[in-house]
Amino acid sequence: MNSLLPSSFVELLSLLMREPSVVGAEHTFFRVLQRELEERGAKVTWYEGLLVAQGSDPHSIMLSAHIDRHGLICTGPNEFQYAAFVAGARSDLLGNSVSEQLMKKIEGRFVNAPVFAYEPWTGAYRGRGHIKGSEICEFRNNLIFELEGLEHVVAGTPIAMVDKLKVTEDALVGQLDNVLSAAVMIYLFELGFTGTAFFTAQEEAGKSWRYLLEWFRRFGGSTNQLFVLDTSPMPDFAAASAHHLVLRHEDANAKFNEALTAKLATTCETLGYRYLYKDDYVRELNKERIANSESEHSLGSTELGRIVAASQGLVDGTTLQVPSSGYHTMQETAPQASVKAFIDVLCELSNINAPQTQV
Questions:
Q1: Are 46 and 30 in contact (CB under 8 A)?
Q2: Which letter, b or e, does each residue of 287-319 get, where b requires 16 or more Cβ atoms within 10 Å of its Cβ?
Q3: SS3 100
Q4: 274-316 pLDDT, tens per residue?
Q5: Which of 92, 200, 297, 300 has the highest CB neighbour count under 10 A?
Q6: What's the pTM?
Q7: What is the pLDDT of residues 103-141, one digit of tens each?
């Protein structure tokens, strides 16, 4: 099958997707990242919730991506809960419970999905099973999953989804959020990236920005312009394919750096790639929803928006995202053309040569 993407990148992404990185239990994945980055010449340093990889000119450009993926955590004998909720301490006990609407949405999302248990520090395999179903516990108002085959695991054991990259004629398919961005950042080092790449934990629990902000408070300079990389949910694959890349002026938390956002847009235009501004897109959708007496969508909450809002001017930047459909499922689908554009734009920003592919 012809591909727009270099085979070495696809192989790297496929390898990373098979490694577990459940929210709150990312240590074993950090070990994998360290190996892959050091093999490509990066200087790697670990911090709590954060892995930092640096090239020969670490202040030339700074990229960041979260590396946690959705999964479950064992919370008692044959009892399993959604890891992002547990890591984020989201329950009625603290008064910040997950909405019933969100729980209902997740409840049927992973039925029959194959899963496996692993030891959170070493990644040692602890058995395999599948999700039979889930229900909302009326006493705790929390989502409880029923698994078959993992009755033996003890509380605290993370449960990852069995995942394998699928490459179609025009797309990449799998649990791409946000291992796709992590793979791209590692691949950039293979091409000669000299800047700094941050890999953050627990973004899906709303905590990753704290680990990143701590680093900038320790080591940041007077200007800390950051590109935060991620996938961006679109209604369907046709909508995801309508533009190569997704940019933002702002999210629900903060406005992003105008000059850096404009630089991204100019780079896209120079390379011939189509883009949309997600905040403008949501506003246009909301006009239709208001006209139809429907509730408005939020502008969304991003890792960058959180850190900009909390850093009081210490950190700013902008986002670059790959549009995808099937967000937060095992069938998240990103157009190959968008992933190629993602790599090419980051190469241009990093002053390295983009890879040439045979189509």
A1: yes
A2: eeeeeeeeeeeebbebbbbbbbeebeebbbbbb
A3: helix
A4: 999 999 998 988 888 888 777 788 888 889 999 999 998 899 9
A5: 200
A6: 0.93
A7: 666 766 778 899 999 998 899 999 999 999 888 877 766
